[in-house]
Amino acid sequence: MFYPTNTFNKLKSIGSLKIEFRELTNGFCVFTTLRIPAHYPIYQAKDTLIFQNQTYQTVQVDEQTHLLDFVFANMNHSCNPSTFIDCGSLTIFAERDLEPGDELTFFYPSTEWRMERPFKCRCGASGCIGNVKGAAKVLSSSLNRYRLNRHIERLRNTIITREKTATYAKVLNS
Questions:
Q1: Does residue 98 register a pLDDT over 60?
Q2: Does the pLDDT of residue 146 top 90, yes or no?
Q3: Are 101 and 32 in contact (CB under 8 A)?
Q4: Is pLDDT at 115 greater than 70 in this prediction?
Q5: Contacting residues for 75 by C-beta, under 8 A, at least 6 apart
Q6: 71 lies in which domain range?
Q7: What is the pTM of this model?
Q8: 125 has pLDDT over 50
Q9: What's residue 17's pLDDT?
Q10: Count of domains in the chain?
Q11: Three-state SS sequence of the chain
Q12: Quick one: 166 exposed, middle or buried, by C-beta within 10 A (0-12, 13-18, 19+)?
């Protein structure tokens, strides 16, 4: 793990909210300690490191920039996410009403075009995408079920435009 475990308190205050980091067999996870209403801002990243290259702990915030934030880096993926990370404001919002002890998860393809370390999803959610490889590798019909960040939408639209142009060129040449 990028951060040594002795560099933080397991219970972290974020404004009036508190989140808890729990060490499980697969690493640290993030949980809420309070009831949080849907769409409420939970956390805003402030002390981040910026990278041009992706790592398995960074979050892609635009087409070419990745950032490392301790809270983001410890959130797990879910195909039924409890939160959404808005890359424009670097803020985590509750996707639904959350209760104390709920894990804070997000849909990784909502921020990542391609994954540094693809993996098999084990979330068990209805409609699970199976393999998490980034938005570039998820069917449009599946991506349409999720909130996506603007840079993912832009990259997606670029691909769709290229496909339509190629199809149109084939029709003209036949």
A1: yes
A2: yes
A3: yes
A4: yes
A5: 29, 30, 83, 85, 92, 104, 105, 106
A6: 5-173
A7: 0.83
A8: yes
A9: 63
A10: 1
A11: CCCCHHHCCCEEEECCEEEEEEEECCEEEEEECCCECCCCEEEECCCCEEECCCCCCCEECCCCCEEECHHHHCCEECCCCCEEEECCCCEEEECCCECCCCECEECHHHCCCCCCCCEECCCCCCCCCCEECCHHHCCHHHHCCCCCCHHHHHHHHHHHHHHHHHHHHHHHHC
A12: exposed
CATH number of residue 88's parent domain: 2.170.270.10
**Nearest CA to 86 among 106, 113, 56?**
106
- pLDDT, position 39: 96
> Rounded to a whole number, what is the distance in angstroms from the first to the last CA of the chain?
55
Structure tokens at 29: 């996870």
Question: Where on the phi/psi map is residue 124: left (φ > 0), alpha (ψ -120 to 50), or beta?
Answer: left
Give the tokens for residue 99.
């209760």
As a residue count, the chain comes to 174
Residue 8: partners with Cβ closer than 8 Å, 6 or more residues away? 21, 70
Amino acid at 155: L
Strand 41-44 to 91-94 pairing: antiparallel
User: Is 60 exceeded by the pLDDT of residue 166?
Assistant: no
Quote the tokens at residue 38: 């849907």
